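Cross-posting from the chemistry board since nobody answered there.

I work mostly on the small-molecule side, so proteins are not my area. We synthesized nicotinamide-adenine-dinucleotide and want a rough idea of how it might sit in this target. Sequence and SMILES are below. Is it possible to get a predicted 3D structure of the two together?
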Amino acid sequence: MRLDGKTCLITGAAGGIGMAMVAAFLAEGARVIATDRDLAAIETAAAALPAGMPGRLYPHALDVTDDAMISALNQRLEAAGLGPDVLVNNAAAIRIGKLLDTAPQDLDLVYSVNMRGLLQVTRGFLPGMIARGGGNVLNMASLAGVHAMHERFAYSASKAAIVMMTRAIAIDYVDDRIRSNCICPARVETPFVTGYLQRYYPDEVEERFQALAAYQPLGRMIRPDEVAAMAVFLASDESAMISGQSFVIDGGVTAGDQPGARIGARG
Ligand SMILES: NC(=O)c1ccc[n+]([C@@H]2O[C@H](COP(=O)([O-])OP(=O)(O)OC[C@H]3O[C@@H](n4cnc5c(N)ncnc54)[C@H](O)[C@@H]3O)[C@@H](O)[C@H]2O)c1
């Protein structure tokens, strides 16, 4: 299997994309340390996994904004011989709004989870990877990090930062045999999306959901397992010569002209 012998730690693993990665990584033979601030949600989802898989799953509570928790988990995993080869920084917070809708505390929240969290979790686990001779840091960015999307002022800024943090890790630790890449999905059907629709547009959830699906020229939301498939490739040795890159999964959004822009063959 493609991830045989690898130990992979995923943050935000109880969520839509996180749990899809947990299932896909386990299916490919990895040992998976599934972490989230909501441990009960991981344990509930794990109960539905096919027989045999849970034996390689190690659920742990981890809030990526809590430095003491990161340090304690690192020590515990190292002592158990479960230091990760692959670290997936997936946990995130979102705030919707333009600049004038964004209060400093909104920026602080997004910053503390998406950027500072990535920094601290990676600072926790990277030295162990280096000591073991190499590793792989995979970050969940967003299409919003490479392509301006309406009303994502704070979130886009944090995801653009993650794109560049990915490249910085890739070049700064190349001699330590660390590679780093990120994934930039457009609209993925997860509780992240339904949650913010209910929070920001409680009277228009269905209408907004259909608009998000139509946003992708291929005509639907992206499924979490489609993001997980890319994560498996980037976590595996099949991608051993790929580092510092951002992989867009957007149903054709950034390919070029959208269908409404068609002006005829002679136009
Ligand atoms: N769903 C989308 O449309 C979409 C698109 C592009 C990128 N992404 C990115 O994919 C990643 C996963 O998103 P998702 O859609 O699965 O979200 P989700 O809301 O379903 O899951 C996010 C998970 O992160 C956890 N989390 C939040 N704050 C945390 C913290 N401080 N410490 C630890 N865990 C924390 C939550 O408990 C939750 O389980 C995020 O980085 C998100 O920005 C999502």
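Reply from a structural biologist on the board:
Welcome over. Reading the output above for you: The pocket of nicotinamide-adenine-dinucleotide is lined by residues 11-12, 14-18, 36-38, 62-65, 90-93, 113, 117, 140, 142, 185, 187-188, 190-193 (CB under 6 Å). The beta strands are 7-10, 31-36, 57-61, 86-89, 135-140, 178-185, 246-249. Happy to explain the token format if needed.
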